[in-house]
Design goal:
The structure is a single chain. This protein is an alpha/beta fold. The chain has an eight-stranded mixed β-sheet, with helices on both faces. The longest helix is centred in the first third of the chain and has 19 residues. The protein is globular and about 50 Å long.
Length: about 300
Protein backbone atom coordinates (compact mmCIF):
# COMPACT_ATOMS: atom_id res chain seq x y z
CA UNK A 1 0.00 0.00 0.00
CA UNK A 2 1.08 3.56 -0.68
CA UNK A 3 1.51 5.86 2.31
CA UNK A 4 0.69 9.55 1.96
CA UNK A 5 0.76 12.42 4.45
CA UNK A 6 -2.07 14.90 4.96
CA UNK A 7 -3.35 17.56 7.32
CA UNK A 8 -6.69 19.07 8.27
CA UNK A 9 -8.00 21.77 10.56
CA UNK A 10 -10.19 20.58 13.38
CA UNK A 11 -13.13 22.42 14.98
CA UNK A 12 -11.05 25.17 16.65
CA UNK A 13 -8.57 25.65 13.81
CA UNK A 14 -5.85 23.38 15.21
CA UNK A 15 -3.97 21.67 12.37
CA UNK A 16 -4.02 17.89 12.68
CA UNK A 17 -1.52 15.74 10.78
CA UNK A 18 -2.42 12.24 9.62
CA UNK A 19 -1.10 9.39 7.50
CA UNK A 20 -3.05 7.36 4.96
CA UNK A 21 -2.16 3.90 3.66
CA UNK A 22 -4.31 3.19 0.62
CA UNK A 23 -4.37 0.30 -1.88
CA UNK A 24 -3.89 0.95 -5.59
CA UNK A 25 -7.53 0.18 -6.32
CA UNK A 26 -10.32 2.08 -4.51
CA UNK A 27 -10.88 0.62 -1.05
CA UNK A 28 -14.28 -0.58 0.10
CA UNK A 29 -13.38 -0.45 3.79
CA UNK A 30 -11.37 1.65 6.21
CA UNK A 31 -9.52 1.39 9.50
CA UNK A 32 -9.00 4.34 11.87
CA UNK A 33 -6.00 4.08 14.20
CA UNK A 34 -5.65 6.06 17.45
CA UNK A 35 -2.20 5.96 19.08
CA UNK A 36 -1.48 5.88 22.79
CA UNK A 37 -0.27 8.83 24.85
CA UNK A 38 3.16 10.29 23.99
CA UNK A 39 3.23 8.57 20.58
CA UNK A 40 2.37 9.43 16.96
CA UNK A 41 1.04 7.90 13.74
CA UNK A 42 4.37 6.75 12.28
CA UNK A 43 4.61 4.22 15.12
CA UNK A 44 1.76 2.25 13.48
CA UNK A 45 3.78 1.37 10.37
CA UNK A 46 4.61 -2.25 11.31
CA UNK A 47 1.04 -2.88 12.52
CA UNK A 48 -0.35 -1.53 9.24
CA UNK A 49 1.92 -3.88 7.28
CA UNK A 50 0.77 -6.83 9.38
CA UNK A 51 -2.98 -6.24 9.29
CA UNK A 52 -3.52 -7.05 5.59
CA UNK A 53 -7.26 -6.40 5.52
CA UNK A 54 -8.53 -6.90 1.97
CA UNK A 55 -9.61 -3.76 0.08
CA UNK A 56 -9.03 -1.56 3.13
CA UNK A 57 -7.57 1.92 3.50
CA UNK A 58 -5.94 2.78 6.83
CA UNK A 59 -5.77 6.21 8.44
CA UNK A 60 -3.84 7.24 11.56
CA UNK A 61 -3.69 10.68 13.11
CA UNK A 62 -1.25 12.51 15.31
CA UNK A 63 -3.51 13.60 18.17
CA UNK A 64 -3.32 17.34 18.87
CA UNK A 65 -0.20 18.08 20.87
CA UNK A 66 1.49 14.94 19.50
CA UNK A 67 3.76 14.12 16.58
CA UNK A 68 3.48 16.68 13.77
CA UNK A 69 0.08 18.05 14.84
CA UNK A 70 -0.23 21.54 16.31
CA UNK A 71 -0.59 22.19 20.01
CA UNK A 72 1.61 22.32 23.07
CA UNK A 73 3.06 18.86 23.71
CA UNK A 74 0.71 16.71 25.80
CA UNK A 75 -1.88 19.46 26.13
CA UNK A 76 -5.48 20.04 25.03
CA UNK A 77 -8.31 22.20 26.37
CA UNK A 78 -9.80 19.00 27.81
CA UNK A 79 -10.31 15.39 26.74
CA UNK A 80 -13.74 16.23 25.31
CA UNK A 81 -11.93 18.47 22.80
CA UNK A 82 -9.84 15.51 21.67
CA UNK A 83 -12.97 13.34 21.34
CA UNK A 84 -14.54 16.11 19.23
CA UNK A 85 -11.36 16.12 17.12
CA UNK A 86 -11.90 12.41 16.50
CA UNK A 87 -15.39 13.04 15.17
CA UNK A 88 -14.17 15.87 12.91
CA UNK A 89 -11.33 13.60 11.71
CA UNK A 90 -13.73 10.79 10.79
CA UNK A 91 -16.02 13.18 8.91
CA UNK A 92 -13.05 14.75 7.12
CA UNK A 93 -12.01 11.29 5.91
CA UNK A 94 -15.50 10.80 4.57
CA UNK A 95 -15.41 14.07 2.63
CA UNK A 96 -11.82 13.83 1.37
CA UNK A 97 -11.25 10.09 0.98
CA UNK A 98 -14.75 8.66 0.58
CA UNK A 99 -14.62 6.79 3.89
CA UNK A 100 -18.03 5.47 4.96
CA UNK A 101 -18.44 5.02 8.71
CA UNK A 102 -20.67 2.00 8.02
CA UNK A 103 -17.61 0.32 6.45
CA UNK A 104 -15.08 1.44 9.05
CA UNK A 105 -13.45 -0.24 12.05
CA UNK A 106 -11.45 1.45 14.81
CA UNK A 107 -8.23 0.22 16.42
CA UNK A 108 -7.01 2.24 19.39
CA UNK A 109 -4.31 1.89 22.05
CA UNK A 110 -4.21 2.98 25.71
CA UNK A 111 -5.25 6.66 26.04
CA UNK A 112 -6.27 6.53 22.38
CA UNK A 113 -8.60 3.65 23.30
CA UNK A 114 -10.35 5.86 25.86
CA UNK A 115 -10.71 8.61 23.24
CA UNK A 116 -12.12 6.11 20.72
CA UNK A 117 -14.52 4.63 23.27
CA UNK A 118 -15.76 8.10 24.27
CA UNK A 119 -16.26 8.93 20.58
CA UNK A 120 -18.31 5.76 20.02
CA UNK A 121 -20.31 6.40 23.22
CA UNK A 122 -20.91 10.15 22.80
CA UNK A 123 -21.27 10.51 19.02
CA UNK A 124 -22.59 7.02 18.17
CA UNK A 125 -20.81 6.66 14.80
CA UNK A 126 -22.12 3.55 12.99
CA UNK A 127 -18.70 1.86 12.82
CA UNK A 128 -18.41 -1.89 12.26
CA UNK A 129 -16.03 -2.71 15.11
CA UNK A 130 -14.08 -1.23 18.01
CA UNK A 131 -10.72 -2.74 19.00
CA UNK A 132 -9.27 -1.51 22.29
CA UNK A 133 -5.62 -2.35 22.94
CA UNK A 134 -4.69 -2.09 26.63
CA UNK A 135 -7.27 0.68 27.18
CA UNK A 136 -6.27 3.20 29.87
CA UNK A 137 -9.53 3.13 31.84
CA UNK A 138 -7.39 3.26 34.99
CA UNK A 139 -3.76 4.40 34.93
CA UNK A 140 -1.41 3.00 37.58
CA UNK A 141 -0.23 6.17 39.34
CA UNK A 142 1.50 4.33 42.24
CA UNK A 143 1.63 7.48 44.42
CA UNK A 144 -1.06 7.23 47.16
CA UNK A 145 -3.90 9.77 46.74
CA UNK A 146 -2.33 10.94 43.46
CA UNK A 147 -5.63 12.01 41.86
CA UNK A 148 -6.91 14.11 44.83
CA UNK A 149 -3.45 15.70 45.14
CA UNK A 150 -3.43 16.59 41.43
CA UNK A 151 -6.93 18.08 41.69
CA UNK A 152 -5.83 20.21 44.64
CA UNK A 153 -2.63 21.27 42.86
CA UNK A 154 -4.55 22.27 39.73
CA UNK A 155 -7.09 24.24 41.78
CA UNK A 156 -4.43 26.09 43.75
CA UNK A 157 -1.66 26.53 41.16
CA UNK A 158 -3.49 26.29 37.85
CA UNK A 159 -2.49 24.21 34.81
CA UNK A 160 0.62 22.11 35.07
CA UNK A 161 2.28 19.00 33.72
CA UNK A 162 3.15 15.55 35.00
CA UNK A 163 6.30 13.84 33.80
CA UNK A 164 5.75 10.21 32.93
CA UNK A 165 7.38 7.60 35.14
CA UNK A 166 7.16 5.06 32.31
CA UNK A 167 10.50 3.92 30.94
CA UNK A 168 10.91 2.11 27.63
CA UNK A 169 11.81 -1.12 29.45
CA UNK A 170 8.41 -0.99 31.20
CA UNK A 171 6.62 -0.91 27.84
CA UNK A 172 8.23 -3.78 25.94
CA UNK A 173 10.57 -6.74 26.33
CA UNK A 174 11.89 -6.08 22.81
CA UNK A 175 15.23 -4.28 23.24
CA UNK A 176 15.23 -2.94 19.67
CA UNK A 177 11.74 -1.49 20.08
CA UNK A 178 12.73 0.01 23.44
CA UNK A 179 15.71 1.76 21.81
CA UNK A 180 13.48 3.04 19.00
CA UNK A 181 11.05 4.46 21.57
CA UNK A 182 13.84 6.02 23.62
CA UNK A 183 15.45 7.67 20.60
CA UNK A 184 12.31 8.92 18.83
CA UNK A 185 12.45 12.75 18.74
CA UNK A 186 8.66 13.00 18.34
CA UNK A 187 7.98 11.14 21.60
CA UNK A 188 7.78 13.33 24.70
CA UNK A 189 7.31 12.16 28.28
CA UNK A 190 4.86 14.54 29.91
CA UNK A 191 1.11 15.07 30.05
CA UNK A 192 -0.98 18.05 31.11
CA UNK A 193 -2.57 17.64 34.55
CA UNK A 194 -6.01 18.56 33.24
CA UNK A 195 -5.81 15.80 30.59
CA UNK A 196 -4.69 13.21 33.13
CA UNK A 197 -7.61 14.15 35.41
CA UNK A 198 -10.04 14.23 32.46
CA UNK A 199 -8.80 10.77 31.50
CA UNK A 200 -9.77 9.55 34.97
CA UNK A 201 -13.18 11.24 34.88
CA UNK A 202 -14.01 10.23 31.31
CA UNK A 203 -13.04 6.64 32.07
CA UNK A 204 -15.29 6.64 35.13
CA UNK A 205 -18.17 7.89 32.99
CA UNK A 206 -17.53 5.19 30.37
CA UNK A 207 -17.27 2.44 32.99
CA UNK A 208 -20.57 3.55 34.50
CA UNK A 209 -22.37 3.71 31.15
CA UNK A 210 -20.65 0.95 29.15
CA UNK A 211 -24.02 -0.71 28.70
CA UNK A 212 -24.97 2.03 26.23
CA UNK A 213 -22.26 0.90 23.79
CA UNK A 214 -23.51 -1.73 21.35
CA UNK A 215 -20.68 -1.70 18.78
CA UNK A 216 -18.96 -5.11 18.36
CA UNK A 217 -15.88 -4.79 20.57
CA UNK A 218 -12.60 -6.62 21.09
CA UNK A 219 -10.45 -5.75 24.11
CA UNK A 220 -6.82 -6.87 24.02
CA UNK A 221 -5.12 -6.78 27.40
CA UNK A 222 -1.46 -7.07 28.41
CA UNK A 223 -0.93 -9.67 31.12
CA UNK A 224 1.99 -7.85 32.77
CA UNK A 225 0.92 -4.24 32.27
CA UNK A 226 2.85 -1.73 34.41
CA UNK A 227 0.90 1.25 33.08
CA UNK A 228 -2.84 0.49 33.26
CA UNK A 229 -4.96 -2.02 35.17
CA UNK A 230 -6.66 -5.11 33.80
CA UNK A 231 -9.30 -4.81 36.53
CA UNK A 232 -10.89 -1.72 34.96
CA UNK A 233 -10.78 -3.36 31.52
CA UNK A 234 -12.62 -6.39 32.90
CA UNK A 235 -15.22 -4.14 34.53
CA UNK A 236 -15.81 -2.33 31.24
CA UNK A 237 -16.10 -5.63 29.38
CA UNK A 238 -18.58 -7.00 31.91
CA UNK A 239 -20.83 -3.93 31.61
CA UNK A 240 -20.44 -3.52 27.84
CA UNK A 241 -23.78 -3.59 26.02
CA UNK A 242 -22.40 -5.10 22.80
CA UNK A 243 -23.93 -8.42 21.83
CA UNK A 244 -20.62 -9.28 20.15
CA UNK A 245 -17.74 -8.70 22.54
CA UNK A 246 -14.47 -10.49 23.23
CA UNK A 247 -11.67 -9.98 25.75
CA UNK A 248 -8.24 -11.55 25.20
CA UNK A 249 -5.28 -11.15 27.55
CA UNK A 250 -1.78 -11.91 26.26
CA UNK A 251 0.17 -13.32 29.24
CA UNK A 252 3.51 -11.73 30.04
CA UNK A 253 3.14 -8.79 27.69
CA UNK A 254 3.90 -5.24 28.79
CA UNK A 255 1.74 -2.25 27.89
CA UNK A 256 3.09 -1.53 24.38
CA UNK A 257 1.38 -4.57 22.85
CA UNK A 258 1.93 -3.31 19.28
CA UNK A 259 5.70 -3.12 19.94
CA UNK A 260 6.10 -6.15 22.19
CA UNK A 261 7.65 -9.53 21.53
CA UNK A 262 4.93 -11.67 20.00
CA UNK A 263 3.07 -8.64 18.65
CA UNK A 264 2.32 -10.57 15.45
CA UNK A 265 -0.09 -12.69 17.52
CA UNK A 266 -1.88 -9.53 18.69
CA UNK A 267 -2.17 -8.28 15.11
CA UNK A 268 -3.41 -11.68 13.93
CA UNK A 269 -6.12 -11.69 16.62
CA UNK A 270 -7.22 -8.19 15.65
CA UNK A 271 -7.20 -9.04 11.94
CA UNK A 272 -9.50 -12.01 12.56
CA UNK A 273 -11.95 -9.92 14.61
CA UNK A 274 -12.02 -7.05 12.10
CA UNK A 275 -12.47 -9.38 9.12
CA UNK A 276 -15.37 -11.11 10.88
CA UNK A 277 -16.93 -7.71 11.61
CA UNK A 278 -16.65 -6.66 7.96
CA UNK A 279 -18.04 -9.99 6.73
CA UNK A 280 -21.00 -9.87 9.10
CA UNK A 281 -24.22 -8.32 7.74
CA UNK A 282 -24.85 -4.85 9.12
CA UNK A 283 -27.36 -5.07 11.95
CA UNK A 284 -28.32 -1.91 13.80
CA UNK A 285 -30.59 -2.57 16.73
CA UNK A 286 -33.39 -0.03 16.98
CA UNK A 287 -33.95 2.01 20.15
CA UNK A 288 -37.66 2.65 19.67
CA UNK A 289 -38.48 0.29 22.55
CA UNK A 290 -35.57 1.34 24.78
CA UNK A 291 -38.04 2.88 27.23
CA UNK A 292 -39.52 -0.57 27.85
CA UNK A 293 -36.41 -2.62 28.49
CA UNK A 294 -32.66 -2.89 28.18
CA UNK A 295 -29.81 -0.71 29.43
CA UNK A 296 -31.55 2.64 28.97
CA UNK A 297 -34.66 1.56 30.91
CA UNK A 298 -32.54 0.00 33.65
CA UNK A 299 -30.52 3.22 33.91
CA UNK A 300 -33.73 5.25 34.17
CA UNK A 301 -35.17 2.97 36.85
CA UNK A 302 -31.99 3.20 38.90
Amino acid sequence: MRMTEHSMNTWDGTEIFYRAWQPETPAKRALLLFHRGHEHSARWQETVEGLQIESCAIFAWDQRGHGHSEGKRGHAPNLAAVVKDADVFARHLGAMHGVKLEETAVIAHSVGAVVATAWVHDYAPPVRALVLGAPAFRVRLYVPLAVPMLRFKQKMLGPGIVKSYVKAKMLTHDAEQARAYQGDPLIFREIAVNILLDLQDTSTRLLDDAGAITTPTLIVGAGSDWVVTLKAQREFYRKLGSRIKQFDVFPGMFHAIFHERGREKVVERIRTFVNEAFDRPVCRGGLLDADKGGHTRTEYDM
